[in-house]
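Comment thread on ticket #2218

A.B. wrote:
> Attaching the input chain for the structure job we discussed in standup.
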Amino acid sequence: MRRKFIFLWLGLAILGCLGRSQSVGGTPSQQSSEGSGLEQNKILVRRWIEEGFNKRDLKIVDELFVEDFSVNGRKIGREGLKQSMSQRFTAFPDLHVTITELLAERDKVVIWYTANGTQRGEFEGVRPTGKPVSWIGADLLRVENGKIVEAHFLDDSLGLMRQLGETLSPAPVQK
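C.D. wrote:
> Ran it. Output below, let me know if you need it in another format.
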């Protein structure tokens, strides 16, 4: 039940973000140029997933992201993103990401995805288990001048850790 609530909340939050920036009206030429820009933004994000993750081409990060790229409000830059992706490739050498939904509005692109892989390397302190895992997530990315400038990532990390056999306990209460 909690998982359904979280994903319902996520969906409403994403729609709220998109809805706030939605424009009404505009001339047909404005709508047409916005439409082609939206398609370009969607292509950009799809390339990051297909080439960056599924083909393991980290060079795509330099092409598609600004130098001072930020995630969840924290600047990690291109190098930080490459490092994060590399860690996932090491942990899950057969990692494959499938985009199940792709939406764009103004300067934002949202993807809903499923990731699958087999843990063959260490991941978040968990030694290799050899277990096949699958998790879902959503990314909200902002594009400026043909480059991704910031992102908000949310995934089912708890479900992933449980599949790896980890149990999470609450932190001890300090008095």
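A.B. wrote:
> Thanks. Noting for the ticket: Residues 32-163 form a domain with the Nuclear Transport Factor 2; Chain: A, fold (CATH 3.10.450.50).
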